Structure formats: C-alpha cells, structure tokens
Amino acid sequence: MLRTLNLAQRTMKLPKLFASLLPLCLSAPATRLSVPSGPYNVGFTQHIFNHTTPNDPTPGPGNIFLTSIYYPTRSTPLPNTSVPYFDPTSAVIWGDVFNILASDLMSLETTLQWQAPLLSEEEDIEKVKSWPTLVFSPGGGMNAGYFTSLLSDIASRGYTVLSLDHPGEAPYLQLPYGNPGVVGWDIYMPYTDSLIVEMYEYRRAEMLALLGPDGFPALVELYGAYFNTQEFGAFGHSIGAATATGAMDRLDSIVAGFNIDGGLFGDSVNASMIGRPYFMTMNPNHFASDPDTWIPFTERYANESKKEGGWLDWTTVEGSAHLAFSDISLWVELLPKIENATEKVNLGNVTGTRMDEILKKYVRSFWEWVSCGQYDEKLLDGEEEAWPEVVFNAKIRSNEHGTEV
Questions:
Q1: Is residue 45 part of a domain?
Q2: Would residue 340 be called left, alpha or beta, if left means φ above 0 and alpha means ψ between -120 and 50 degrees?
Q3: Which terminus of the chain is more exposed, N or C, with fewer CB under 10 A?
Q4: Residue 20's domain spans which residues?
Q5: 368, 386, 282, 235: which is closest to 376 by C-alpha?
C-alpha cells in the first residue's frame, strides 16, 4: 500500500513535495484565486487507492487512482503555507497550450491548507455529518486540481468534497507522499469514440470503488473522521459528468447529480435517476455537437418523473465555451500572456471571473437545496436578472398535480 493521508494530524505540516515547491511559487508575485465564499476555511489532503483497471488504455500504472479531499476547517491560513496550485512539470505543459509562462502559472496560489485540523465544534461537525459528501470527476485529460476554485468554494460552505484523478490520463499527475509523478497521454491526444467509452468505464468503476465500503467509508473509519459516508452527491465536467451520471444510475446512495457541460457516453446515456434531483448546464455548442444525448435524457427523465417524482434543470451559459467551466479561464484572465502568441483554445467571450461566479453560484445553490432545503426560487426556477447569461432550456418539477415540463 502506498503511503496515505493522516487526517488525525492536528498541526500544519507540509510534506516534502509541497514544501519544495513553495520557493518556486514565491519567485513571482503570487496570484491568488478568489477567496472561497463560505464561513469556513478549507483543508486539503490526498489518498492513493489501490484499484486495478483491466487493460488500462492509458500509459499509467493501471492499479491506483488518486483522491483529493477538500474539507471545512476553522484553522487560519498561515503566510506562505498554502497548497501549491501547480507542479513544475504540469506548468510547462499547460503553459504552452495557453501561452502563459510556466513561472507565471507557478505563481498561482490557493487558499487550501494541507491536512489542516478538522472541525471541533459539535454544531459544525453535525452539519458536515448530515450533508452529503460530494464526489467530483474532471474533464477528460484534465487534472482535478484545475477545478480548485469551485471545489474549495463548495468545501468552504460546509461540505466534504472528493475529487478523482486517474494516473496516466492527464499529461502529468503529481502524486503525494514522495511517490513519483505519472506521465500520461500527450495533451493533444485524439480521443476516438471507443476510447472515450473506455475512459468513462474506468472512471465510473473508480467512482463506485471510492464510494463503496472498501473505499472512502473504510478510510473515514480508519482515521475516525466524521465525514458522511452514507449519502453522496455526484458531479463532474465533460466526461466527468457522464461518470457521475453512470455512478448515480448504479448507486442509490448518490442522492443528486450535477452535470457541468458534459455529454453522456457509454451506458450513462440510458441512466435512470429515479426522480433524484439533477442539474445540467452547458455551453451553446452542445446543441450542435451533442444533440443525441441531452434531449433524450431530459425526455426520459420527464417520463420517469410521472411515476417517481423528480426535479431537473437544464441551462445554457450563453457566450461560454467548454474549458471555460474550469479554472483555465481564470488562468488566462489573471495571468500575463506571452506576447504575439497565437490563440490555440477558444474560451468563449465570458470573462474567467464571471464564469467562476456563475458556476459557483448555481452549483452551491443546487447542493444547498439538496442538503438543507435552502431553495433559491429565482435562481433555480427560471432566468434571473442578475445572471442574464444563464438561459433555461427545460425545467421538470413533480408535484401532486403531475409533472411540469
């Protein structure tokens, strides 16, 4: 078994890996992602689970996956001790794609505290225990850490948030606790339809393993933590959204799902939500690039809701593009670009900070309604003046009078 986390640790102590990166982060003026909106600060730790992927199509080892855990803490961040956003290898790879110097990417600073103390007040603990633990799967070929702004914001509201990385899929994945990083597919890897289905299947298997009795629940029991291991929420970006949907189809303990700009692949196309709340948001190009999954999925959900009850929102963020639903749009907005470089990726015409605000607002409003009934009617029931970019394509509500679509 590879070296693992230490949730019981009560003092801030950066592992050798992170400590060695801090000087690099300080070599350029730090650029901090937006401060999380919740009442808590955010702790962070990681765990490497042993799990075999039969005939793994990636260059990775095929016998592990990495889980990052974001959780609320009352610990106050100390100067220059936040978890680094980038490792040097990944900064070079991704900087080349977006015309940003690796040194500037290395200047990105998070508010995450490595293995910060858990909550101690009973009221805080009861909140975390009663709200579902949320599990996130990133877009294809992307590190889950490139959604740090969103994931840390949710954790600051009182949630335990898990994210998944499959070593060998992203161009490079730095592993914790002194384990070597894993070189994966080239960043311009062409994905065939059959390969996408393979990716979906191993990701779904890993999410199910993580939420199964020998995964996260066993880890929580081992360390005596108070995290919820009975109810989960699943969400993801791109193929990660299909992963969440497919896992939701198989696991009744997943009480709700959130699809961030993701088509459906493999058997997730026919997933049954059995009336559980489900939110879908997308960029406008999905109407042309993915007409065969979202509309049938919505229609089937509506038919199921006539019997099972249900709640679904389907929205478009006008002016957005696929990768703008990640931190990447923040990198591009906040950091200097290499002069006279040719744009290689379209991020739409909504600014990074605005996309960040939109996504956080809708994601946290959805989960807070699922968790504690705090329902924002303006936001979740129709187009809102404050967020004109968000357009509703479909809304499904079940009540005693039947299903409203």
A1: yes
A2: left
A3: N
A4: 16-404
A5: 368
Q: Which of 276, 226, 280 is nearest to 254 (CA)?
A: 276
Element (H, E) at 368: helix 352-372
Q: Which two tokens stand for residue 217?
A: 């629940």
- What pLDDT does residue 307 have? 83
Cα–Cα distance measured from residue 248 to residue 207, given in angstroms and rounded to the nearest whole number: 10
Name the pTM for this structure: 0.91
Q: Is residue 65 part of a domain?
A: yes
Picking from 245, 319, 334, the residue whose alpha carbon sits closest to that of residue 282 is 319
Encode 348-380: b = buried (16+ Cβ within 10 Å), e = exposed. bebbbebbbbbbbbbbbbbbbbbbeeeeeeebb
The Cα–Cα gap between 241 and 259 comes to 5
Q: Which tokens belong to 77?
A: 């961040």
First to last CA, the chain: 50
Angle at 213 between CA 208 and CA 218, to 5 degrees: 120
Give how many domains the chain has, as a whole number. 1
CATH classification of the domain holding 342: 3.40.50.1820
Contact between residue 234 and residue 135 where contact means Cβ atoms under 8 Å apart: yes
Question: Dihedral (C-alpha) 167, 33, 161, 70: value to the nearest 10 degrees?
Answer: 80
Burial 199-209 (b: 16+ CB within 10 A, else e): bbbbbbbbbbb
Chain Cα centroid distance, residue 165: 10
Tell me the one-letter amino acid at 279. Answer: F
